[in-house]
Known about the structure:
mainly alpha
Amino acid sequence: MAHVLNLVVQKFIHNYPDMSELLHKVRAVCARFRRSHPAAARLSALQRNFGLPPHRLICDVPTRWNSTLHMLERLCEQQQAIVEFQLQHVRVSRTAEQHHFTTNDWASMRDLCALLRCLEYATNMASSDATVISVTIPILCLLEKTLRAMMEEEVGQGQEEEEEDDVSFLALSGQSVRSGSEGGFLQQQRPGTNVASQGPLLEDEEDEEEVEEDEDEASSQRGGTQHSAGTSLVRGWGDTEDDDDTPPTEDSLSLPLGSLAHMSDYMLQCLRNDSRVAHILTCADYWVATLLDPRYKDNVPTLLPALERDRKMREYKRTLVDALLRAFPTVTGEQVEGQGRGGARGRPRSSVTASSSEGRVSMAEMWKSFVSTPQLTAPPPDTERVSRRQHFTNMVEQYVCTQLHVLTDGSAPFNFWVSKLSTWPELACYALEVLACPAASVLSERVFSTAGGVITDKRSRLSAANVDKLTFIKMNQAWIPQDLTLPCAE
């Protein structure tokens, strides 16, 4: 997930009009104060005069897009000192500053910072040690909702209210949007997206029944939900490496170039044109994983288009029932309970810390409102002695219709499903297997980096066993009590 977001942001930075020229100017100014001692000393004096933090300017790294955000944030922080330095340089040398920032440049940098903060928040959330695969769908949907809110807020401040009834705001950018619904990505056609997986708008009940039958046949043949008996419970969760490198079109954007609304619209196009994002949002397995997380279960319908909400929910519940049938062909409840308790042991989870954002519309606020808005549900149906499919169907319906009160920390879904091993044994065991999948490969990469820090030039004689132990201690340092004392060997 973190890799997908990185590719989307990199595509935006390289393809957005005039972005390369602005960033080239910013890098030149930052590099000047980093290289020149007189310029750095003068900047420090100006910081004291204006009461600014005595921070040095930051130069970004090409392989890390968030370093570009930090570079822009630091430059905007020191805007008053930078502007005064450039004015003094013009008066002394009587020549125009080569990389002088205009008022529009400063406004574009501030808007770009507000936009990239949302992407950084989403990336940090996906890269957290406690983040599991169930947050993938909420991150993408709430990121899209945040970008649209930023567009609406910006246009609402700069234009008069001349909106027509039942017209979506995204129509201002020339995109094909279905009005009268609350969905995000699923409402629009994207390159690399299977049209049949999205489903058309339903005009009457007969068409809805026909579409549901087609969806049942299609869902049983999709590779993303296929499992083989006797193998891992979550085997077959496919991924795609294909990507659409075609830059978003500029002719359809009627918003002011360089404004926050224009950049938000452009970022939305980059998200929708990315085939990896399209694969995630059209693959039922990711939605099932979100449905299995008790923290987000009641909010899953709010992420779906209003006109397709009921049909999609029925499809995902059928997908979950089919997965349970393939995963547990003949396993009894007692065996499943034993397997689940063994698989859930020893997985401590820490809470996901939400970083504050200074943007006018923040991803953090969207996430807080998402996790704190439960949906009223109906009472669970009665369970009877029925077939295995009906047994799993009743089990899934009971879980979906049960009103849950679960904490929002990282260990909450695991603690919940461990407590339900006796109530819903097969579903609990399958949920523990699914939620054990991380949302990104960042944690495994951190393990490799930690091992590289353990083995140094002065510690090259360490055995493999000691490297494993030291790496384990380093990665689990947060769980070790500060007052722990080890017994001394006599």
